[in-house]
Amino acid sequence: MTHRHAQRLSRRTTLGLLFAAAGVMAAGMPVTAQAQAQAKGEVQVQMRIGYQKYGTLTLLKGRGTLEKRLAEQGVGVKWTEFPAGPVLLEGLNVGSIDFGTVGEAPPIFAQAAGANLVYVGNEPASPASEAIVVPKGSGLRTLADLKGKKIALNKGSNVHYLLLKALEKAGVAYADIQPVFLPPADARAAFERGSVDAWAIWDPFLAAAEKQLGARVLADGKGLVANYQFYLASRTYAEKNPEILRIVLDEVAKVDDWGRNNPEEVATILSAQTGLGKDVVALAASRYAYGVKPVSVDVIASQQRVADAFSSLKLIPKPIVVKDALLPVKQVATK
User: How wide is the angle at C-alpha 112 spanned by C-alphas 109 and 115, nearest 5°?
Assistant: First the structure.
């Protein structure tokens, strides 16, 4: 068996598991307006995708392969960039996008707020892709030094959970720090002018702070958090469009295979897509974890721990059961 053939088989198996787990495996598309549009070479509908300046979706957009694949189904693609996961999921909840990718915490906050979303897959853990950084001349040396300090972060984002776990490790109460809730661009400005003492941030903003500002990592996610990247869809969209989601995740899997083996090309595409220097995105990409997977029992358990941590501190309005944001299993893959 060739390496390429093995990759195809692995991808087919992974996608079968994804849709068995999510309950969105389709036996085939009926003859619909989409199928008729395909025969005519027309685009009838759009899939609206939310993305951020990181991860596989940015690569997928840059390569343009999804547009070609969905055009065969009479489906166009509209990409919308968001500065962070919480606002992306707000877009998903109000119906301005159908599908997107975020880190660990945003789905927790969204589910607690009543958003009708579902998990459809995730990339492997990538704990080094987020960190708490301090200015290069800072006197802060340990996590315990954060007590009483101002820390910039995007509320409800993946780094919100990183901060909770970092403080817990250091024996510092969350009430004993001063969170300053800012989106990445504003947080960087505050960090540069010295109006905050530390910044909890993710790649590629993290890599940019390291390369451009000389920011020093006080602690990254290793040993503290998993930092999964999740793919989510609105429940209604997932139930009505299983074949489109299957195609999207198939293209994500292909980009994962390609990206893992082509770091130089990845940096080139990410630089063009984000407007950041190639040295910055190369550092960020070196910390990526490729390989879209089903949302397993262990991953859901990890997400439940995130939810419980936010609930215990009253940072979300009510406790949630994460597995409620999965579609029921309807079919088990046999191939």
Answer: 90
Q: Which two tokens stand for residue 305?
A: 């721990």
Contact 133, 197 (CB under 8 A): no
Q: What's the CA dihedral at 109, 295, 258, 67 to 10 degrees?
A: -70
CB 285 within 8 A of CB 270: yes
What is the C-alpha R_g of the chain? 20
Longest CA pairwise span in the chain (Å) = 66
Query: What are the Cα distances from residue 63, in Å, to 99, 195, 233, 263, 290?
Result: 18, 39, 22, 14, 16
pLDDT at 37 exceeding the cut of 50 = no
- Rounded to two decimals, what is the model's pTM? 0.85
Condensed to tens digits (0 to 9), the pLDDT of residues 177-200 reads 999 999 999 999 999 999 999 999
Among residues 294, 335, 301, which one has the least CA distance to residue 119?
294
Fill in the amino acid letter for 86. P
